[in-house]
Amino acid sequence: MKKIIVSIIALAVFTVSCDDFIEKEERGTQTLENYFQTAQECENYTNELTRRLLITNDWYTLLAPRLVSETATDDAWMGNTGQDSGAFRPCAQYLVTPDNMGAMNSIYTAHFYTIQSANIGLEKMALSPISDSQKNQYMGESLFARAYCYYELVNLFGGVPLYTKSLGTGDLNLQRSSAADVYAQIEADLKDAAAKLESAPVARNGRINKWAAYALLARVTLFQEKWADAKLYSNKVITEGPFQLESDFLNIWNVNNHNGVESILEAQSSSVQDKNLGSMLPTFSGARGEDKKNFPSNDAADVIDGWGWCMPTSDLENAYLSENDVIRRRSTITKWGEAAYGDEVLNPTHKFSLNDNKSGRICRKYYIPIATRRALDKKDGHLPLNVPLIRLAEMYLTRAEANYHTGGDALADINIIRARVQLTPKTGISGPTLLKQIYKERRLELAFEGLRLFDIRREKDPTTGRPVIESLMGPNGTFVQYNLNSTDPYETTNTRESQDKGINFSPAKNLLWPIPQLEIDLSGGLITQNPGY
């Protein structure tokens, strides 16, 4: 840990003195001691923390590990069978070791850079000669950024080194804190953030506000089975916040509906042609092997050269079919040769390379419509797809699960979500059947939005009391057995990605990923490894 913390400090010092990082009025040589003197400087610093947290235009640092987490679930294959899968394979196939973690290494390092930078900013802004309202806004956003980093770290790796002050060379002896302590700090940061952001404007696209803090509080308390708190915070966002469900589910990921009425927090994107501000997600997970001849226009302007990672499973598609859930299925999955939902005229038979696609399916949520493609002279690095990180529907599902455990009306909440996609209400179900339905609604509603791995690790099978992932994965897991006996015409004919997905899962270790071995080595053994690795 010693070298990594030194490098974090070096990066933080560098970033607050680099012309490429912050536009500033020159006052001689700037250092950490004289930088945070104006509201603009504090805002720019805070903006950079948020950008690092929500970064969309860098395919590797955060996007790759977040997609890797999807491919470790029953929702997604690695998908790309035409290129080396080294970044995905260790976690996706449960072959991960501390020395071979693929892309999962990068999120560990990146988040600690951001945490150290947040600590520096919080300390300096507290002493800055700006107004109290400005301090509250920028410090509130910084607290949220630190909390979100720790939220992802604790769910991926368990207890990690916890620190809330900037580190110097005399502080290089951090050991792992317990997961409970990390969660306690996350909650404290989010409550402080919400209080500081109480008077900050809400309608600031891409900026963190108090509702994002309350919504993340709802999520992290749910994950800890603090049912009363999860109900409190989710209900607060639902009943007091300025949000409402989109009337059209497809509109949530619409390139022409950024920061819509349902969105609580979105990673921003832009198609501005002289800067690379677009999202890499549509490229990273776009259909691989598109060809102009497969579009009615026969025009190369309609083609995006997708990389084809993180492709939907037929098991996920079957979950939609079992509910006759046409709207969410077509808004989430496009099967080879099927019209792109909402883009049927210009893309009536979306085709791509089946030789390079494990499942013959792509994620519709990540799709760029043909009209938008045609409007762009530059595509790679310029695709305008915002990425929702927290939205109102999740709050309804959080309240439903909390209500289930506290004797409230869980059915009412899931039926609100079902009504939006024109499904009949569920009635007359209770007990384990109701809990499983809540889990299922979360899967169908939030697929490919970064929660499935965390959910199946934390959700308890009401029959066994064990984490749901244990019933899905491993040699006897229902998802593994489904794939081994599948007759799906796409998945079973492209075996360059193994059909026994999940068979190597072990509940003795794979409820968390390992701590990168490099971090253990650099700490001189102060940091310990997760069990089983």
From TrEMBL:
Domain SusD-like N-terminal per the UniProt entry, residue ranges: 97-222
Entry superkingdom: Bacteria
Sorted UniProt keywords: Cell outer membrane, Membrane, Signal
Main location: membrane
Keyword Membrane: yes
Domain RagB/SusD: 347-533
PROSITE patterns, per the entry: PROKAR_LIPOPROTEIN (PS51257)
Pfam families: SusD-like_3, SusD_RagB
Sections of the chain in a coiled coil: none
Cell location: Cell outer membrane
Keyword Ion transport: no
Protein family according to the UniProt entry: Belongs to the SusD family.
Name recorded for this polypeptide: RagB/SusD family nutrient uptake outer membrane protein
